[in-house]
Amino acid sequence: MKSGVDLQRAAMAEICSTRDDWSFHVTSDPLTRFLRDRRLRTALHILRVRGLLEPAKQSALIVCGGVGGEGVFLSRYGFTDVTVSDLSEEALAVCRSLEPRLRTMPLNAENMAEIPDSSYDLVLVQDGLHHLPRPVLGFTEMLRVARRAVIVIEPHEGLVGRLIGTEWERHGDVVNYVFRWNRSILNQATRSYLLCTRAIVLPHRMWDHNVVVGKLARRFSERWRLLVAKAVYQVLRPVNRLGNMMVAVVVKPDDNPAHRSGQCAAPKLS
């Protein structure tokens, strides 16, 4: 049986060889854009309200970036220095065709030895760590190469995930376990790696059922579809603390010689 890394590579190679339409990554359809981008917008909002978001001045690395949907989003959001990494060369070729301004890099998320420490202002992953056999190692590699912040958008460990979530993902003879995160796991992984009590860990829990919500919204006329989708998630907002998805931001402390002893400097929030 092959590993989750093989799953990611094999699945992307097959998808890229059979699909000829990637327009949902660059579409102007309001409903598609809302459903596709709402988690990313939530993560960037967390940074923005703390004065930590300067797209035109910051570099970004996307881990497990596939064909570059997140890269296209960041580029159109205002980021001018965006690198998309993935195991699949086929996926990265599609990425370059969608948005030529994006840099691409074949990369194993569990071992980014090619990248020096603190190379990118922002390092981001969306639905990628749970494909890895060692997802926490992938996360700590993100912490290592990030200069300011890490964004992790992954399934949340909780009652909802255990009841209705997928535990095993299969693609032919390739399989991986769907690793789910929560506040405790994120905190422990961050502090055990950084050895710093003052790193800022900001997990945000939310509902994410875009396939179901999209099908529901498309039953209505085009005029109402976006409003219906927004209304569904607005209704769920009061119970976001029970949601199936984690959108988390980890802000690294300022570089300081005392960092490794736990007496690191607090990040600048404005």
Q: Could you explain how this protein is built, in words?
A:
- There is one protein chain.
- The protein has 270 residues and is of the alpha/beta class.
- Helices cover 39% and strands 20% of the residues.
- It has helices at 4-18, 30-48, 69-77, 89-98, 135-145, 159-164, 183-194, 210-217, 222-236; strands spanning 59-63, 81-86, 103-106, 120-126, 146-155, 168-171, 174-177, 200-206, 245-251.
- α5 (135-145) links the parallel β4 (120-126) and β5.
- α1 packs across α4.
- The longest helix has 19 residues, at 30-48.
- Residues 256-262 and 265-270 have low confidence and may be disordered.
Notable traits:
single chain, 270 residues, globular, 7-stranded mixed beta sheet, alpha/beta, 39% helix, 9 strands
- Name the strands of the widest sheet in spatial order: 3-2-1-4-5-9-8
Mind telling me the C-alpha Rg?
18 Å
The chain-level mean pLDDT equals: 88
Counting copies of identical and different chains, the oligomeric state is single chain
Q: Compute the number of structural domains.
A: 1
**Count the helices. How many?**
9
By secondary-structure content and strand pairing, the structural class works out as alpha/beta
Helix content estimate? 25-40%
Largest sheet: 7 strands, mixed
CATH class designation: Alpha Beta
What is the CATH topology assignment? Rossmann fold
Sequence stretches where pLDDT stays below 50 over 5 or more residues: 256-262, 265-270
Shape: globular
CATH architecture identity: 3-Layer(aba) Sandwich
Beta content comes to 15-25%
Order of helices and strands: HHEHEHEEHEHEEHEHHE
